[in-house]
């Protein structure tokens, strides 16, 4: 049995491998991917494995973005600490999941389900795209908690031009100021309106109204002109380029 692990935490990947050995699951590990971009590249250049263990929140975004770029013709078992409503959606889509921290009994049940209904676990590309959109739509909000002096204040989402991560700190930029957001980009992005915000790469999220121009960039990427860009350079990563164009056409 050939498997692929998509997980951005080395410790979690190691724990999963140890559990697989504990339950005597006979497998050959093809690799461990930790980003959406790396995973897309792997699937484009390799034969599909028999099974994939996939975390939801990766280093450069949600793993569902993988399915927006390519077809993944193999069963997936998600490993996640995501909200309960998301887990219910996985059940509807006949995709199994393991809630972190993974328990041995849960892993054994997931593997039994995989073995019994291997053909039925093929992922629906369309369902996953719709699910990603539902996550974004269902968790929209109007304000972001930002640091101000010794305390906090609320920034209106409608004022946010873009957000970026630098030295493990998340910054938000408006027309008039830069603020520190008390969340990581991985926490922030799923709560934003999917029609208004796009994560163009691992460290930047842009608002649609802030985009002034779009230029072709080398290696099939795009370079953006953004309102109040300061010293930032905005490059849409290659795996996200097609999805970014579709997002602009909404």
CATH topology of the largest domain: Rossmann fold
Tell me about the biggest sheet? Answer: 7 strands, antiparallel
Order of helices and strands: EHEHEEEHEHEHHEEEEEHEEEEEH
Helical proportion, percent range: 25-40%
- Residue ranges: pLDDT <50 for 5 or more in a row? none
Major β-sheet strand ordering: 9-8-12-11-10-14-13
Q: What do the pLDDT scores average to?
A: 85
Structural class, judged by helices and strands? Answer: alpha+beta
Write down the overall geometry: globular
Output the radius of gyration: 19 Å
Question: What portion of the residues fall into strands of 2 or more residues?
Answer: 25-35%
At the first level of CATH, what is the class of the largest domain? Alpha Beta
Distance between the termini: 41 Å
Task: Indicate the CATH architecture of the largest domain.
Answer: 3-Layer(aba) Sandwich
User: How many domains make up the 3D coordinates?
Assistant: 2
Number of E strands: 17
Number of DSSP helical runs: 8
- The CATH homologous superfamily of the largest domain corresponds to Response regulator
Domain Response regulatory: 2-115
Domain HTH LytTR-type: 144-250
Modified residues (4-aspartylphosphate): 55
Keywords: Phosphoprotein
